[in-house]
Amino acid sequence: MEAGKELVHELRNTCPRASWTRPESWHLTLRFLGEISETDAATFAAALEKAGIEAIPTGELRGAGPVLFPPRGRPRVLGIGVTVEAPLEALWKAGTSAARAIGLPPEGRGFHPHLTLARLRDPWPPSAVDAFRENVERRTFPAWRLESCVLFQSRLDPAGAVHTPLRTWMLARATEEVRP
What positions carry a catalytic annotation? Predict the structure, then answer.
């Protein structure tokens, strides 16, 4: 987390105007649900439980370089990519299945986990986009611990998105070898 905070601090001071995310709101989105009812949120949560979300083991998340969305053309979102390892992929699959349980169609794009650092309202010059990429590429981020999955309600506020946890699932602890 500290490495990410340092990166954002440096980028704020050297890059063009952007809407930078607050570290306390950093998260990985497994599946964006949009506007859903409380009933659908409860059904989604029940489907995650039925998929065995709490049996998914904890793991580590590792940075995988810069991401820009859309990947071609004028970027609107800047972030740090995250490698897809077995526990994260299992969570994504559970979220995809649970979304179908409330009638949402499959997403038309692949899973690209990332931490969003900034949203761009105004286009950046190509040199600034290249500088962002280079800055992220030359850094090494420590692994983050994947220990839980949270169903958030997200509300846009003038100061940024406000994420309210509706439900939290702790993932299964990896068993440690006990030596006599």
Answer: 27, 114
